[in-house]
């Protein structure tokens, strides 16, 4: 059986990925495939730290892949449904004893967690490993969004911080390995939550446990000093799902508006090209009288007006879609001064790869620089859009009024 285990793990991974893609509702933004993949990675790390043998590790990984599949039918009783899915997939591939180990590990993740052996403790710690990881704030935002989507109600900041802080303070990792790996960062997250709550509800007194956590690793009993967050902590705590959604929605809106402008310009180019081709092929010969020696001045003015209207419309339609060539080079000094925008290709296409990669790394390390670049990018996208629509407005006005005047001129010419 050991020789077939690697292929079974691969098959399980593929099966669970396909199951999430096909069955998991979009509202489960926290209990998604990403969460399962991260939990599997944490299980491998903890299993190695706890010196599990290869067979035990493989059984634990199998359980982790399945542990949240039952969420496809809702959170209530999802562990039992996950066990049913795992048993259906694994019953012909594992011995009965190994299958029972997998099922026990899945059930151990049920809250409140009450693991009985080392394997169950490891999967429980891995399932909540994000509490002590850098990804905590991102996962926290996704959990908040998921709960709002499921319950159709949105908790305000004060209620959410209280809920999250109560859970964090009541949670303890079960293995020494998890405590060594995750507790330090988890305590830091608790400190940040306490400080957030202090801002939101300054009249609420701190408990002894909260005060002890604030004092941990600070080396000072000055409460005022303990409650002073660093600038980076404050800003990072404020960035969440809402900020990402705002930028994503705004970028999508700009992209859609730009596409609409280009489509409108293409429409005007096509219509005016057709009008000019008809004008040249059919109307121009009629400008000459029957002998072909004299110009028919009666049709010359309206024909000239129509031709000028079409040409002017095409000029402004072309201007609205004409790309603007920029220098395409940002200096290191601009990046160090946080004045550069590396999110638009026109600003970096002449930079060396080394300088560009260095600039991107600088931007990713500094949230102010990153979000400032995105804000500047949106601003200049708006400037470009405004110019596009200004040209389009002129184009449509010329076409509309010019067409009206030209048709009136033709009517007068034929009436005379």
Description:
The chain has about 425 residues and is mainly α. It has 3 domains: about 1-125, Orthogonal Bundle (Hypothetical protein af1432), CATH 1.10.3210; about 135-240, no CATH class; about 240-415. Helix content is about 70%, strand content about 0%. The chain has 17 helices and no strands. Helix 2 (about 35-50) packs antiparallel against helix 3.
Question: What's the short version?
Answer:
This protein is an all-alpha fold and 416 residues long. It contains 17 helices and no strands. The longest helix is centred in the last third of the chain and has 49 residues, at 367-415.
Name some characteristics of this structure.
416 residues; mainly alpha; 0% strand; Hypothetical protein af1432
Number of strands: 0
Q: Using only CA atoms, what is the Rg?
A: 33 Å
**In total, how many domains does the architecture comprise?**
3
In whole angstroms, the N-to-C terminal distance is 100 Å
| SSE string, helices as H and strands as E | HHHHHHHHHHHHHHHHH
Helicity level: over 70%
| Beta-strand content estimate | under 5%
Shape annotation = elongated
Number of helices: 17
Task: Provide the fold topology.
Blueprint lengths: L4 H19 L9 H17 L4 H13 L11 H13 L5 H13 L9 H10 L8 H16 L5 H14 L5 H25 L7 H8 L7 H4 L4 H8 L2 H43 L13 H25 L10 H5 L16 H13 L1 H49 L1
